[in-house]
Amino acid sequence: MTPTGDGRDRLGTVVVLFDVDGTLLHGSADTHVRAFADALAAVTGHPDPFVWSDDGITCGGEPLSGRIDNEIVRMCLRSAGLADADAARQAPVMMEGTVAAYRARLAAGDRPGTAVPGVVAVLRELRDRGAVCGLLTGNARQIASAKLSACGLAPFFSLGGFGDEGSRRSELFAGALAEAGALGIDHPMLCYVGDTPLDVVAARDAGVPLVAVATGRFDRLALQHAGAATVLAGYSPAAATCDILVDRARSVAAGGQR
Ligand SMILES: [Mg+2]
To answer: Residues within 5 Å of ion ligand 1 by Cβ?
Structure first.
């Protein structure tokens, strides 16, 4: 392989997929979680099932960190005591209600979150190098879109895999790859950027190279313990971070370790 120094070479296009909460944005989960509670109340009449603490947010004793929206809907319906068949029937209704509640909360002034320091410079530089940026997020597609539009980051992303389009995170890569294919990127060199142990596990299960960032709730040790070989403390300096992301994407094509 003869790297050109940018995101393109004869092996294909580099596609960097980003998780959203804790990876691109800080403070973005609060409004989102409250929208789940709104939808659960509307669908079942059940009160807010979430417990907030310094260790994170739980539902029915299970942590939400790294869970995708379809999983959180199921956790909510389970906490409301619905039997499996009823929960399966109500899940799409609750997902739709969560999207509507999220939009209503943003319209009422609830906060969408703010960009993690340094990430915008990285997104700009990746774009300048010819790499394509996408999302691989537990957020439902319409919530991710509303969230990133409100934070000014939406224009950087042209494809994605979303949390209302699968039952677990590792399944979402297929959707992102299909969207890359629709853009004419048939054999992308992928790298995933995520902030939770479940992101690390999903990338491993999907066979996608990962760079973990300790920008969310989990520190370097927790991410390494989950199996991340590369953990960044943050995104600065942008050029060095982009070098790592592009090298990681090329590592599989070059025969390196995932
Ligand atoms: Mg996250």
So the answer is: 19, 21-22, 195
**Tens-digit pLDDT profile for residues 19-48:** 999 999 999 999 999 999 999 999 999 999
Q: What is the DSSP letter of 23?
A: T
**Residue written as token pair 């943050």:** 234
* 62-63/56-59 β-pairing: antiparallel
Nearest to 216 by CA among 95, 73, 64: 64
Dihedral sign of CA atoms 36, 113, 157, 238 in order: negative
- Cα of 9 from ligand 1 centre, angstroms: 30
φ, ψ at 221 (rounded to 5°): -65, -40
Quote the pTM value. Answer: 0.93
- Residue in this structure with the two tokens 């999903």, named with its chain if needed: 202
Residue 28: partners with Cβ closer than 8 Å, 6 or more residues away = 20, 21, 112, 113, 114, 147, 151
Residue 147 is inside which H or E element, if any?
A: helix 141-151
Sign of the C-alpha dihedral computed for residues 137, 139, 143 and 148 taken in this order: negative
- On whether the CB atoms of residues 250 and 189 are closer than 8 A, the answer is yes
Q: How far is the CA of 192 from the centre of ligand 1 (A)?
A: 12
How many residues comprise the chain?
258
